[in-house]
Amino acid sequence: MELSNLTLLNGDIFDANALGAVALSSLGNAPFQSALLHDFDKIIMVIHPDPNERQRYGNHLIHGESRTQTMHVELSQLERSLLTGDNNERVVCLLEGDILWDPQGIISRLREEIKLFGEPLRDRMIFIEFARFLHMYVKSKRYLQACCFMDSYNCILMSLYHWAKMEVCEAGQYPTPAVWEQVKSLNNSVYKLYEELAISGETVEQRIELVQLACEFSLMSKMVDCCKWLLSLLGEKREPWTFEELIALPELLYVEAELPLILRKLSARSLIREIPSWSDTGGGSIRYSV
């Protein structure tokens, strides 16, 4: 569809600086239908440069009997969603929608990167999922120690979810919103743990403890491979890194909550070095190096 026709059909949803747009129809063949399509016939996602000065978040439009929902996202927001999976709706729209407007080939480029799922993207996604896997596992352990069983259950379930996404990435596939179906098709042990947690006849506490044991073993065995992207990043500078320097890196923006835990675990396994820098007062800061 030409840009002029799209503007005419849906009102003033475009601006001259729009980078592209895709349309997802409720009649499409996507295996996972976006929840945004509930009671709508079509979603149009308009991609804007950074920053989007107009700050337009969406419109609901009608043309005859057809109802359309539009949403406006910045390119950086979309790239974050592709990397972290923090907004499945954007991912589904980008990968499954029909391209309406792509003058610079940005949408085609993003789709090709996901299709190829090469090493730089795959390694970074594996590290992000590992960081979240570890974080939720530790939270589950703390809740269990406090006898908060359902909170512990929820955290270990989320830990399994991030483990499942790791397994999909390691199999060379990009994780889709229906990630458990992907894992099931891989005949992976993490799916069996998911079933054990959900439908086992054991008590909730026993189920949590069983899955926590499996998670702990997986964390120890996978740490080197899953953290190689971070280890490579640490090795890019001769001098040791301060935590402040690391947390300021754009590449680590999406794991700022998990990074302290990751650094401590890597240090405990002697995969990185902690280098204290002492002051005259007896205290000091810690720097990190490979």
TrEMBL record:
Q: Where is the YgxA-like substrate binding domain?
A: 126-222
Q: Where are the transmembrane segments?
A: none
A family per Pfam: NTF-like
Where does the record place the Nucleotidyltransferase-like domain?
23-119
* The protein's name: Uncharacterized protein
Which organism encodes this protein?
Paenibacillus stellifer
